[in-house]
Amino acid sequence: MSRLLYNLGVSLKERYERFGELSDISDAVSVLQKAVDLLPLDDPSLPSRLTSLGLSLMGRFVWTDELSDIVEAIPILQRAVDLTPETHPAMPGRLTSLGSSFRGRFKRTDQLSDITEAVSAHRKAVELTPNGHGNIPLLLNNLAVSLITRFGHMEELPDISESISLLQRALALTLPGHPAIHSILVNLGGAFTSRFNRTDSLSDITEAISALQQAVQLAPQGHSDIRVQLSSLGISSTRRFERTGDLSDIDTAILAQRKAVELTPEGHADLPGQLSSLGLSYTCRFQRTGVLSDIAEAVAIQRRAMELIPHGHVSIPSTLTNLGMSLSIRFERSGELSDVTEAISILQRAIELTPHGDSRTLASRLTNLGLGLRDRFEWTGELSDITEAVSAQRRALDLTPEDYSLLTNFAISLSRRFKLTGELSDIDEAISAQQKAVELIPEDHTDMPGQLNSLAVISNMRPRQTGRLTSIAEALLLQRKVVELTPRGHASLPPRLGNLADLLTRRFEETGELSDISEVIALHQRAIEYTPQGDINISGQHTKLGNAFNHRFLLGGNSGDLDDSIAHFKSEMAYDIGWPQDRLEAALACARSLNRHRPYSNDILPAFAIAINMIALIAGLERTVQGRYTKLQTTSGLALEAAAAACRLGRADKALEWLEQGRCHVWSQLNNLRTQLSDLRDHNKSLANRLEDISKRLELAGSSRGLPHTSMSMSEKISLEDEARAHLELAREWDEALQAARGTPGFEAFLMPPVCSTLLQHLPDSGPIVVINVDERRCDALALLAGMDTPLHIPLPNFSVEKGRAYRTDLEDQLYAHSLREPLKPKPERTCDEDERVLRVLRGLWEDVAKPILDGLGISKATETSTDLLPRIWWCPTGLLSFLPLHAAGIYRGADSESVLDYVVSSYTPNVAAITDRVKSQGPIAMKSGLFLTSQPDAPGTSPIPGTTKEVQSIFRKAEETGLRALKLEGDELGPGECLERMLEFSSIHLACHASQDSAEPLESRFLFHQGSLDLGTILKANLKHADLAFLSACQTSTGDEKISDEAVHLAAGMLAAGYRRVVATMWSIGDQPAQEVATNFYEYLFAHQDGAGGSGFDGAMSAYALHHAIQQLRRSQDDSERSLLTWIPFVHFGY
Q1: What positions belong to coiled-coil segments (predicted)?
Q2: Contact at 8 Å (CB) between 118 and 58?
């Protein structure tokens, strides 16, 4: 019975080997197991039957990749060897089977001991077989395969060189027509490919392809291994393509690999690897031709490969790497941020799964991660991304310092960081690394032009930054050679033409040579012509060409050049898949050129409109709040420039819209996320709920997501990337939900930038909002009054940016002289008229800005006998004026002394919406009405402010006497967390403490307590729905950052954004005693002017008048000396 079962099992096994049916090999295993079980332990046929069973298990393992099969096969085959005498003729065959089983398990588990055992078993099999034996070629082949496999792990050249010698010997000993010959050829091709990967010798990869082509031709019709041979041929052809750039090789590779995939049954263990290799070939062809369908196919195939790989499989890291690289490369052409974000996450996982002993593989994957991070940096501008890229690629070079491709990628990343930081050590190291890369790459390598291109571009960066003129001629010679070596149709030709044009532009800027700029124009035209339709790399090319035509126009005055320049700027503006930054630059270049040369062109305002619209894309919700502020530095002043043009062209309405849309961008985004959805909920409840859910998560993601740093572990970085991907997905969902809302009848403009008519609704009745635009070209005020349907345009011809800068310098110098602020520059020399400087600033602001506005509004000076409340005014200054005390503008000495305080009660607002939104939602504070007070006189690391204790106690006592709901916690009684809880419980808060303004990271600005600190970012997360008044009795709580002055990045604006309707803050340091006096008088007035008939409620509706009163009280105790002025001026009111 055992014999019959054995014969059946062997037959099933042989049929499987012929036709590749999984059911046959599974049946063979089952039948052979029974045959073995029925055999006595001392039966002489047991070793042969164990061998057949072990080989069947191996066969099934090859099909299914089920680890248990190979784990079970090894002891069975080992037992067969142990039962076989060394002199037995079957011993070499059984050793071969055992060695193959060890090799199979190694491929699955990556355990080095397994491949060592495999080599040992195969070598002993060869040693036991006499020369001239017919099985010698097969035994040599098996030993060679194990050596090739070990080389893939250890990368020791003697292993791969020995394997090639063994296979060549095996081939020489095999008779033509022998069925084993094609298997030997396949392995020989694999060996040559492996050595090529290590040595980059072109002869090796050519030998590999020759051997594999012969193997395919010799394979029997329908043989199950033909797919493996086709796959190997495809891989080797791809490698030669990467070396030579011959398109026929990559086309051959893809054809062979597609055929291999078609011949591989679904569920076969080889299928994921074959798909991954095919996807890699499509990626390679895309990089050469730029055909977008290739990279789309590559990504789709790689995703399928990942879906098919069993959990824990050893090939997961390599497949992840291939998918990550395909996504990263697609991002370079598509600009889809989700691609590169996913790529980074995938590549990090691949690195985490890579054995640390595999130095070359780890180095390659680290370099790939660096590429992904660098790609994202090009979009985000985040220093953390390019720093992480440099760090990953430096680590890769530590592992394999002589790899030219790694050196080049490292050099490019360093050069990108240099562009951001200006750190000369980066560009010096980049040049050195790229020079070494050029020395290492073979002269005939297809990537030589790319290496020379990188050297030319990187070397040319240093003199631009240092002003040291080197020979542009040498750089031009090098770049011309790069262009000559790059074939037409190569995806890199357009950017290389662009680099040559950039060098010629530099020389033109030095020499003004007409022929240079004409060649620049021709080069950019060729680059545009050669860029495939839909390729994001077209982005920026039209702008450069437009600039070149503009240069030539300025040189020769030919109006046709100006026409061409504007036409190309418009082309860039219309290219909606391009980078937003490129479209913004094109729109600005167009608007500025027309402003200068055709000042009444109808194209000026549409160009500015596109530029303003790009701000929302450049600083979108997919970024962290801090990331948005960083990007907004690049657009600072844009809205002011656009508004100035609109005012000049008589479009005050457009000026107002752009000042609102282009300023306070982050606060506006936060306001949109917190928008009331009651009206939408009446029409579409599920959509409103969806928007509400997304907005909460998006707000949290924007303010809580951290940035990676080099000291983090890879798992920590992966976690952060997962957060980044989730954040990006939330931003996409938000955009989709917004579009859905705008498709609802009546909600077409839902959360769109407000038009002028909308901004003029819900204005306060008690006074105007005055937006003051301060631009290099002109200054204007736009007054918004309830009941008017257009802004009142008041030109300010006597004010200028130069005056504003001078006023600010004078004020800062005097604040420093009086120890009220840290200096912007070294302490100035004291002069005899220094006591006049603040007075001159205030007089200038009065005569040039405030008085013309008040006159334009028809507001007259209040009489001393009048008992009427003064009208209110909301100042909304821009640019440098944001740092000047407009509320105190006036003449303070002489018979004609007067000031803003004699005409109006002043408040400030960062933008119009901050007021109109409060007017729209003036609902009662209800159950949360009340006042919470705290003093923190001795915060660690700060100077004592003992007066805050007296200040708070005095206010609290008066609140109790008035019967208001109030709570006081001081010093150690209150931590930051409890303070936040009290802010949720009380509508108003009084913070008497030190504050820290962080201009580099605005959300890190904070209030300092005895037990820690409360930062603005944490307050913003709380979403204080019932907040009313915040009195910030702390220093410099309304001081912004000049780099992003129009973003109002100070604590006062932040408290408005957090939900408070009005905020009392300070422009600079305040004295202990004046602070007490102002606060006490402020609350006395406010307590006395509460609406209603008593009760414990409290609101700050009269807070602007209360502060006006308190300041006037303080002034009466002071003179008009500079020191006295600087005592009361810093107190300011923000909001409604």
Answers
A1: 670-697
A2: no
As a whole number of angstroms, the distance between CA 334 and CA 538 comes to 11
1073 φ, ψ (degrees, to nearest 5): -70, -45
d(CA 171, CA 136): 10
> Which tokens belong to 577?
């898949």
Per the CB < 8 A criterion, the answer to whether 928 and 986 are in contact is: yes
Confidence of residue 463 (pLDDT cuts 50, 70, 90): low
Is the separation of the CB atoms in 995 and 1045 below 8 Å?
no
- pLDDT tens digit string along 356-376? 778 889 999 999 999 999 999
1025: left (phi over 0), alpha (psi -120 to 50) or beta: alpha
Do residues 209 and 251 lie in contact, with contact meaning Cβ atoms separated by under 8 Å? no
Which residues fall within 8 angstroms of residue 732, CB to CB, at 6 or more apart?
Answer: 338, 622
Cβ neighbours around 861 below 10 Å, total: 13
Domains of the chain plus CATH, in order, are 683-702+730-744 (no CATH), 759-910 (3.30.420), 923-1135 (3.40.50.1460)
Residue type, 972: D
More confident residue, 1002 or 871: 871
- CA distance linking residue 1007 with residue 1050, whole number of Å: 12
Q: Which of 329, 302, 299, 328 is nearest to 316 (CA)?
A: 302
Question: Average pLDDT for residues 1014-1042, to the nearest whole number?
Answer: 84
- Residue spans of alpha helices (H) in 128-201: 136-154, 157-173, 181-199
Helices (H), 760-874: 801-817, 837-845, 851-857
Q: Are 379 and 346 in contact (CB under 8 A)?
A: no
Q: Tell me what pLDDT residue 705 has.
A: 62
Q: 765: which residues sit within 8 A by CB, 6+ positions away?
A: 786
Q: What is the pLDDT of residue 326?
A: 96
Paired strand residues for 1131: 1066
- On the question of pLDDT at 664 being above 50, the answer is yes
Kindly report, residue by residue over 140-195, the tens digit of the pLDDT: 999 999 999 999 888 899 999 999 999 999 999 998 888 888 889 999 999 999 99
Q: Which helix (H) or strand (E) holds 502?
A: helix 493-511
Please enumerate in sequence order all residues whose Cβ is within 8 A of that of 864, keeping only pairs 6 or more positions apart, or say none: none
Helix axes 514-530, 493-511, angle to 10 degrees: 160
**Three-class SS state of 988:** strand
Per-residue model confidence as pLDDT tens digits over 767-795: 999 999 999 999 999 999 999 999 999 99
Q: Which two tokens stand for residue 450?
A: 């790319």
- In this prediction the pTM is 0.76
- Distance CA(489)–CA(145), nearest Å, equals 40
Q: If you average pLDDT over residues 607-611, what whole number do you get? A: 95
Residue 584 and residue 614 in contact, taking contact as beta carbons nearer than 8 Å: yes
Tell me the residue type at 945: I
Task: State the Cα–Cα distance between residues 704 and 381, nearest whole angstrom.
Answer: 19
Q: What does the alpha-carbon distance between residue 232 and residue 245 come to, in Å, rounded to a whole number? A: 19
**How far apart are alpha carbons 890 and 845 in whole angstroms?**
7
Whether pLDDT at 823 is above 60: no
Q: How far apart are CA 473 and CA 509, in angstroms?
A: 14
**Helix 448-459 and helix 493-511: axis angle, to 10°?**
30
Give CA–CA dist 186/226, Å, rounded. Answer: 10
Helix (H, G, I), strand (E, B) or coil at 203: helix
CA distance 590 to 607: 7
Assign 3-class secondary structure to 1039-1060: CCCHHHHHHCCCHHHHHHHHCC
Coil, strand or helix: which one is 969? strand
With DSSP H G I counted as helix, E B as strand and the rest as coil, what are the percentages for the chain, rounded to 5? 65, 5, 30
Segment 949-974 shows an average pLDDT of 93
Instruction: Count Cβ atoms below 10 Å from residue 487 Cβ, excluding itself.
Output: 13
Tokens of 1051: 């604590």
